[in-house]
Amino acid sequence: MANPSILILAGDGIGPEVMTEVKKVINWFGAKRDVAFDVSEDLVGGAAYDVHGVPLSDATMAKAQEVDAVLLGAVGGPKYDVLDFSVKPERGLLRLRKEMDLYSNLRPAQCFDALADFSSLKKDVVAGLDIMIVRELTSGIYFGEPRGIITENNERVGINTQRYTESEIERVARSAFELARRRGNKVCSMEKANVMESGILWREVVQRVHDEDYADVELSHMYADAGAMQLCRWPKQFDVIVTDNLFGDLLSDAAAMLTGSLGMLPSASLGAPMANGRPKAMYEPVHGSAPDIAGQGKANPIACILSFSMALRYSFDLGAEADRLEAAVEKVLADGVRTADLLGPEGGSPVSTAEMGDAIIAALDAAL
Ligand code: NAD
Ligand code: IPM
Ligand code: MN
């Protein structure tokens, strides 16, 4: 049987830098654990624009539809800020999400013990934290019509539309309830039903799906603004949070700081099962292309490495290998190995992106 296939789209800025470390990890699993993948690489974002004049070519889109999993680095950067909106690097990423129909975006926020002191919150607020934000990823205000900039009464008007169908809400709710059953069995749904009709529908549908099929899971509802506050006040009250595309974008960046750094947060974007039973899937760190540190060997590769770990778990049914990789990351952090983003104002001596990758490989070897 052919090996499972992975398409790597490293993208821009620190994307290729962190992806180099992920490739070391993929090679390690091939060499040492007999877990081999057919890996191919292509362009996305500004890197694709530079070659093809578009942030994602049709050929790359077609490849992404065929592979078992896509691994994406990051897209965007100041060089591309001047481009027309339709060809901005971020449009390439949004096209992948939309056309692969990756409606369920899993963004875990887990606080590694070794980093509990480093969070901007008090240690006892974050120590042992393990929550999962499920962000709806293919609809809502990111994609709703009408949209655009029009002229009305001699001035310009910017328009975006929040729009959710019942079935879009239902499928992401199901994904959150299913996940909760395998974790702490609690779901908190966040919207703004107090001011938005789409929020009223969201709340109704999540409640109905719960009552019909997931009554064993504890469900609560919260307004998203209050949710943001509770996330900072006492994040350990949550297990799974399910929310829409925009609120999920904001809440997951906030959750990143609970864990210490944006450089630590992985994500999985999952769609419906393919013919081989695996979900359509793309794995990517939550962070962006970090233009402020790109090209300097400073980026933390852990978010991207943990995204590959999520691929092992969610696409390839290799939970034990994912545990092995996560344990190696934990060991390296416990040993005090730190990229610059994991050092506080008091400083210390940071390792480079490559040194962090090498330390994780060494920890994998040591645990064999
Ligand atoms: P960003 O996530 O790129 O950076 C925010 C801050 O976090 C920066 O100070 C950066 O240095 C730091 N940071 C991020 N990742 C890090 C890592 N791995 N190691 C160490 N430090 C890290 O967000 P931004 O600055 O708002 O956006 C920059 C560009 O990235 C924009 O073009 C934006 O659209 C794009 N972006 C892309 C994605 C993606 O590809 N998924 C996500 C977010 C932002
Ligand atoms: C993310 C990013 C993207 C988003 C951008 C780059 C399109 O911020 O993945 O969180 O807004 O979804
Ligand atoms: Mn974001």
TrEMBL record:
It catalyses: (2R,3S)-3-isopropylmalate + NAD(+) = 4-methyl-2-oxopentanoate + CO2 + NADH. One of its GO terms (molecular function) is 3-isopropylmalate dehydrogenase activity. It is an enzyme of class 1 (oxidoreductase). Keywords: Amino-acid biosynthesis, Branched-chain amino acid biosynthesis, Cytoplasm, Leucine biosynthesis, Magnesium, Manganese, Metal-binding, NAD, Oxidoreductase. The record marks 142, 192 as: Important for catalysis. Mg(2+) binds at residues 225, 249, 253. Residues 5-360 form the Isopropylmalate dehydrogenase-like domain. Pfam families: Iso_dh (PF00180). Substrate binds at residues 97, 107, 135, 225. Its EC number is 1.1.1.85. Binds 1 Mg(2+) or Mn(2+) ion per subunit. Its cofactor is Mg(2+); Mn(2+). It is found in: Cytoplasm. NAD(+) binds at residues 77-90, 288-300. Pathway: Amino-acid biosynthesis; L-leucine biosynthesis; L-leucine from 3-methyl-2-oxobutanoate: step 3/4. InterPro entries: IsoCit/isopropylmalate_DH_CS, IsoPropMal-DH-like_dom, Isopropylmalate_DH. Its main location: cytoplasm. Homodimer. Belongs to the isocitrate and isopropylmalate dehydrogenases family. LeuB type 1 subfamily. Catalyzes the oxidation of 3-carboxy-2-hydroxy-4-methylpentanoate (3-isopropylmalate) to 3-carboxy-4-methyl-2-oxopentanoate. The product decarboxylates to 4-methyl-2 oxopentanoate. This is 3-isopropylmalate dehydrogenase. The gene is leuB.
